[in-house]
Acetyl-coenzyme A synthetase
Amino acid sequence: MSDIIPVPASIASAAYIDKAKYEEMYAASVENPDAFWAQEGRRIDWIKPFKTVRNVDYTYGSVSIKWFEDGTLNASANCLDRHLAERGDQTAILFEPDDPNAEAQHITYRQVYERVCKFANVLKALGVGKGDRVVIYLPMIPEAAYAMLACARIGAIHSVVFAGFSPDSLANRINDCEAKLVITADGAPRGGRVTNLKANADTALKHCAASVKCLVVKRTGQDIAWSADRDSWLDEMEAGVPAECPPTEMNAEDPLFVLYTSGSTGKPKGVVHTTGGYLVFAAMTHQITFDYKPGEVYWCTADVGWVTGHTYIVYGPLANGAISLMFEGVPTYPDAGRFWSVVAKHKVNTFYTAPTAIRALMGKGEEIVKKHDRSSLRILGTVGEPINPEAWRWYYEVVGDKRCPVVDTWWQTETGGHLITNLPGATPMKPGSATTPFFGVQPAVLDPGTGEELSGKAEGVLVIKDSWPGQMRTVWGDHQRFMDTYFQQYPGTYFTGDGCRRDEDGYYWITGRVDDVLNVSGHRMGTAEIESALVAHEAVSEAAVVGYPHDLKGQGIYCYVTLMADREPTEALRTELQNWVRSEIGPIAKPDLIQFAPGLPKTRSGKIMRRILRKIAEDDFGALGDTSTLAEPQVVDDLIENRQNRK
Ligand code: WTA
């Protein structure tokens, strides 16, 4: 039995959605989705209103997902222009810089509108047009949001690449989507240090077509290398373009952005989101999950390089005319009280972060939380990985003083917005459970072996039985991969890649990925990507990567490495390999543990038995199961003997 924590009465009475309303609306949303979404679709402004609500085929081989397909709109106009009359002078983006002594910026809707129009005209001047791809490689500065909205304004498709990714990862993404332009900054201050972003972009661009241009935002003013026929400064170009830029009329199903995310095989895939359905879903979930009320200060601590930053810093909040706080720094700089000092300074009402941050701050004790005033907080949220009940309790009790509901939002890059989450005024909470589905979302638990749908209390794999407007539409340039990844294994449903349990109250508990995707500090990492980085090193002949439980990160990265015959396993080489992966992919991919293994456990047909590798990495080798099918059973003894994670 798990604890149930009731919705605070003061929240329930003022919320948009209480328990009765949730039940009534949820029933309507699944019984008559056309009528339900026809109404919800009107929460945004259309240039030409849609007549058709949904047109969905989940059949493997002919998967096609369309929402509001005959409507036209512009996402940037929905986030900016339509607010000007009513709240042009209200803050849209509240920018808190890395340096706590630098002044915060309150940027109004009108100011964002003006900057976005200019930015859009700069893009046009650089030859970017409707349907062209633009890669955005920027720190957490307002220009990142301007760049996204400027693309949306002229119908260009943005692909934001997290500024923590390496030049190699950046180049791969530029090349995969055949971007015309990369937008970067001279440098990115974070936690008191500076990342040389422009230098990274320069390195990446050496591996890209010569025609790719580079637009540079001045953030630090540091010295950078310059390529006169390729690079331009944003501020210089903005000075020479008109102030007005009419929004381009886009079809609901025109792509809004591509965002790369790790899968279980091969290179990261470009998740494609389109304009109409995504925006409706972003706006709706932002308003309802956070019970967002006009004038509230809302803070999502994610980076715009991840989907959470797209939907819940930029598109959702701005479509709703919210005040969206954007934070350039890290939770532990200048000290572990930074989050709470920002909450106090800006009187933050909604705070949305990741379990990994909560766990790290929990380790610093209560004192540093309590010395900051958190009385403005009303709603807390978490996303990215299952939250352990201890961390949940600390968040609820210490950060929120038991006053603020914690929404545990389960979703994915692919889903565009929240799919399973409690609603602050409607759903009693259970620490560690994402609780119940959002409107229109029909989760099911399947037996992983047979694919049979399980009813009642059950454990298995999580699928979604029908579409919702924010669903991804395809993998950029590879619709087959889209169908293979999500619609093949369990026909007729969307396969999430997550395992889950449903309890006696119908609450969902996500148990983590069931595929070869790791969740490291809330960031998705494909084991295949790390393996290919490792084997690209001249000393490595073979590599296998698995996850293991890690107190702070959720999962740590455990690598089994077989060296070339002439190489010796040394500590120096271990460090070299860790740094190698770090520089190949980015700091988030740095292996935690590397075990040199003379051989890997393989079946006679040569398939690596990851089940065994996972068990050894978990230091749980008492239950290795059947090893009789191994080609060389003795390798297992060596692996156990030299395991790196000893409890
Ligand atoms: C995991 C992030 C449990 C899950 C929005 C999912 C979660 C993956 C939760 C997607 C949560 C995300 N509880 N697990 N509240 N939120 N996950 O694409 O495994 O970066 O499949 O999207 O994170 O990660 P992604």
User: Anything to note?
Assistant: The CA atoms of residues 213 and 434 lie 43 Å apart. The domain at 521-642 is CATH 3.30.300.30 (GMP Synthetase; Chain A, domain 3). DSSP finds 21 helices and 31 strands in the chain.
